[in-house]
# Entry
Amino acid sequence: LIEPTIAVFTNVGPSHLAGLGTPEGVFTEKAALADHVAKNGALIVNVDDPFFRKLLKRKRPARILGYAIDRSVDVTALDVQGSKKGITFKVGREPFALTSPVWGNVHNALAAIAVGRLLKLENEDIRRGLKRFKAPKGRQVFHRVGKNVLIDDTYNANPVSFKNAVRTLKTMKGSGRAMLVAADMLELGESAEVFHQEVGDFAACHGVDMVLTCGVLAKFIAEGVRKAGRNCEAASFESKEDVLKELKKKIRPGDVVLVKGSRGMKMENLVQDLLVFLKG
# Structure
């Protein structure tokens, strides 16, 4: 209807599979946008994503800009360094910085830089824009209460975003434990159990010390933790109230807690209750 002049393609993952069937179906649906970009427009493509790399072969629109980490493309992030305070990287010789420690935001920043350069913005203006970034509600928002950190990532969940969140949890881990409160990932179709087990395995193998799950499907995350055979405690509960009771018993000063689940699980309610508890 509108023939956009710029289209940004971020990633394809196993989400919305109940309606689109497979990741290939997700790609087909998202990639349809490329056919309707104005002839003088441009595609901004995540070349690190194996699905969207296919877009590089398209003849339309006239211009395609690729972005990636450590790949030789139009906008490449080099020397990526992360800490609890944020992430720094270079594009060519130009330094950029994020105030967020969320690793997934590096790709998001690269997409923004690509769009900014396409619109002929100065690098200094782009840097200022990135520094002003604040996480939207429920998307890896950090609450620091005393010696604890609570990461609210309750807006939504799929296997890719779950693993990215676990990476952030590992980055934020200090003297205490890394604790994951995980609820169901919805709309994953027939492979839902397998996807949940994979998240549990990933958490156990990436520095998480304790996993507490809530929901019918999330119990398979705990199962994945146990099958991984790592030093990671796992327990499943039927309700958010039961998880909160367990957290109140287990949490200690210095612990970092990540809360994540699909939108329909309404895990933001647990976040608010936990904040009240931590603040005393």
Summary: The chain has a mean pLDDT of 93.
